[in-house]
Amino acid sequence: MNDEKAPGLTFPCRLPVKAMGRDDGEFAGIVSDLVRQHLASETALDVRTRPSRNGRFISVTVTIEARDRAQVEAIYSDLNAHPRVLMVL
Questions:
Q1: Closest Cα partner for 78 from 88, 64, 66?
Q2: Euclidean distance between CA atoms 87 and 7, whole angstroms
Q3: C-beta contacts of 36-40 below 8 A and 24+ residues apart
Q4: pLDDT at position 7, please?
């Protein structure tokens, strides 16, 4: 499959990646570090966090400039494999 013709996406594009986990004060940093591994070192991250109603969980959204489908799949794979990540959207 040609990466540039992936259904629904035209690369390069801005893409929000959202991960959810327990709000332990470290989770946002973990998500940011996992995503940053797949970006150029000088890339600034656009990170937004939102706590759950009861404050036990947090969602972290990192918006990236995705260059191709392989990069996106690698980011999602790493996030899904991490034991502290409960859900990835």
A1: 88
A2: 23
A3: 37/78, 38/71, 38/74, 38/75, 38/78, 39/64
A4: 65
State yes or no: pLDDT of 18 exceeds 90: yes
Alpha carbons 34 and 13: distance in angstroms, whole number: 19
Both tokens of residue 74? 């690698």
Q: Where does the pLDDT of residue 21 fall: very low under 50, low under 70, confident under 90, or very high at 90 and above?
A: very high
The C-alpha angle 79, 84, 86, rounded to 5 degrees, equals 70
pLDDT value for 41: 82
3-state SS of 48-84 is EEEECCCCCEEEEEEEEEECCHHHHHHHHHHHHHCCC
